[in-house]
Amino acid sequence: MRLGVLGAGQLGRMLALAGLPLGMEFVFLDPQDRPCAAAVGRHLKAAYHDEAALAQLARAADRVTYEFENVPASAVEYLARHLPVYPPPRALCVCQDRVEEKTFLRGTGVPTAEFAPADTRAGLEEAVERVGLPAVVKTRRMGYDGKGQRLVERREDLSGVWEALGGVPVVAEAFVPFRRELSVIAVRGLRGETVCYPVVQNHHEDGILRLSLAPAPELPPGLAAQAQAYARQALEALGYVGVLCLELFEVEGGLLANEMAPRVHNSGHWTVEGAQTSQFANHVRAVGGLPLGDPSPRGCCALVNLIGERPDPASVLRIPGAYWHWYGKEPRPGRKVGHVTVCAPSWESLAERLEALEGCGLRVCGLRALAGRAVGR
Ligand code: AMP
Predict the structure, then answer these.
(1) Residues β-bridged to residue 185
(2) Pocket flag, ligand 1, residue 147 (CB < 6 Å)
(3) Which atom of ligand 1 is least distant from the CA of 144?
(4) Residue nearest to atom 13 of ligand 1 (CA)
(5) Cα(41)–Cα(57) distance, rounded to whole angstroms?
(6) Taking all residues of the chain, what is their mean pLDDT, rounded to a whole number?
(7) Residue 336: its pLDDT value, please?
(8) Residue 357, Cβ neighbours under 10 Å: how many?
(9) Closest Cα to residue 124, out of 158, 91, 156?
(10) If you write DSSP's letter for every residue of 199-218 in order, what string do you get?
(11) pTM, whole model, 2 decimals?
């Protein structure tokens, strides 16, 4: 099977690394010069809205998927007229607009923070009036890695925030005093079967995912089951095919959904070594109509993103259970250039291995403390 992928970044690259052993071939459409997935498939260099390039992709592939959610919906709709596109274009449209997304989630019975949309400066006043202060104001579209959002604590800051976000349609959300951030990855196959990975705990720095711990330590089984049920509700409501990530806040008394990603997700990178079947393998299996694989974890796992930095790979690889992933990108501040996964048979040994990782110059203190706390250290 020839799989077309919109986007050729590290997610596309890891999809191909999972699909090649299944006999799949990959063709990527991406406007960048030498995107990192070009190493593992054919690269069509063109803008996403370039119809000639989309037609070429449609001829070169049997099915199409996408590796990030900010591809133009029109490109996906164009392709869907020529060949199967998974996840379905509706999922992409819903996830591209924070108001649509929260409205959809609530409609399927998944709770979210209070929110109110605003298209004008005056509308923002009213929206914040409705959700209360403090509030988080986010652009409705094109936000990622914490970009396009501001915390508002005082009414007098609203003008500055409206300007700073570019005067575009926004959504005001009630600030959630969460205990921790969680995410859950669920997969739905072509015949409607679903599997769910364990819930993971995430830590962001400057809006960028820095660390994940899998499975989330000390998560009450009821909450884990609830998170997985929410993800499944979203999959069913969208008639979804492929991997979906649901990001959640753990709050007093339960869970609130923050957002969804209609694609493989950074908080699932640990599954490559840490689960029986990786999120990438399960995504290409789903899209390819193959049976889904077992999502069970093999033990305790930590994911540490390399953001603009490149520690010495040899020192990392000396740590038992540590795996090095380099995306072949130039390090720049704030840019994800790779990740390290650390697997261990127990939280105790994971805490020790993370301590060793810190010795390589990687800051993992929050994670080490958590892994340690999970065993009462
Ligand atoms: P997002 O782009 O929506 O994923 O937001 C990026 C990060 O900002 C989240 O991972 C949270 O750490 C924080 N955040 C977003 N929305 C809220 C909220 N309503 N209340 C508190 N923190 C938030």
Answers:
(1) 245
(2) no
(3) 2
(4) 207
(5) 13
(6) 95
(7) 95
(8) 23
(9) 158
(10) PEEEEEETTEEEEEEESPTT
(11) 0.96
